[in-house]
Amino acid sequence: MKTTMEIPDSVFRRAKSKAAERGIPLRQFVTEAVEQKLREPSPGDEKPWMKHIGKLKDLHEETKRIDKFIEEAFETIDEDMWK
User: Fold this and answer.
1) Would you say residue 69 lies in a domain?
2) Across residues 37-56, what is the average pLDDT?
3) Angle between helices 9-22 and 26-39 in degrees, nearest 10
4) Domain that holds residue 67
5) Cβ distance 19 to 25 under 8 Å?
6) Mean pLDDT within 28-49
7) Number of domains present in the structure of the chain
8) Does a structural domain hold residue 4?
9) Distance CA 62, CA 1 (A)
10) Is residue 52 one of the residues assigned to a domain?
11) Is residue 2 assigned to a domain?
12) Inter-residue contact 19 to 29 (CB < 8 Å)
């Protein structure tokens, strides 16, 4: 498909130079660049909560310690009630 785009002169010159270095037409270089960009995940595509996954893993042992403390405390209370 043909299209017209307006890009800054400096970007155009760099893209044309890179395409020439690789020995490919500018059209192919731009197509490959757009395809590469489309494969990358967009910041909005990522679930915001995913960046926090694993950050609380160190609390697993602390949670077990607290659960044990609570269990021991309830056993003590139950024993005191029956005395």
Assistant:
1) yes
2) 73
3) 100
4) 9-81
5) yes
6) 82
7) 1
8) no
9) 60
10) yes
11) no
12) yes
